[in-house]
Design brief:
283 residues, alpha+beta, Aminopeptidase, 11-stranded mixed β-sheet
Amino acid sequence: MTRHAYARDDYVAALGTAVAVPSWSTAVVDRDIADGGHDAVGSYPMAIISGDISEGLEDLRAHGLVSLVIVPDPLAHDIEAFRPHFDQVTAFKTHLLIDGAFEPSAHHRERIRRGHRRCRIEQGRLARWLPDWNILYAGLVESRGVTGMAAFKPGYFDVLAKYDDITAFAAFVGDEMAGMTLWFANDGIVYNHLTACNELGYKNGAAFALYDAAITHFGDQGVINLGGGPGAFGAEDSGLFQFKQGFANSRTAAHVCGAVLDREAYDRLAADKSSAFFPAYRG
């Protein structure tokens, strides 16, 4: 079985300073703490862990990290296995799924037909359209005010472009690119990784045609995880969530898991800070 994209060493290194976790066959991203020390966060957008959970936490304690935050893939992992090992396990986002037959809503069926009438969809490797994708995603970051890890370091997409298991679907209106979406499958799960459209794409329903093409392509390769919206768990009023919901027929919860690795340092950093956020010193 091909190693999961989110667990690959070069993938995590493209997100930030990677700290190897041998017991988990993956790595996490090291972060500086303003008041001193380092903590870590799992791979974006979800962590894929192989091996014993407690052994991996010991690896990270030995590395001198104060705390760890991860979001385990809810379809690849049973969240109950994480509860005994983490100090905080909280519902984070609702993920929308296609499990079984693909039956989009009536509204979406009409928009899909419109999108296909107006857009030409091509399929291939990201490397084929990498400069165009970089422009599309930069526009998304600017227009939506994307911050944090999802703003991505320079070179992140260069790494994705090397992977032959990531499929790009590109939408064109005439000869002009209007949008693109990136998908891949691993061990019976299909991942909708990223999607971006420009104004031409929004006007011509590119996203509807792109999702339909990707879902049709990957429909026999497992449960499709479309991800969620920008809000927290239970937030269903965003345009992105409503867009994905029109394709979906099921849902699951992704959880954020926080572990204190150095209790003395954690308590010192979190002193006088009351927050439900984990770690509290970043709240």
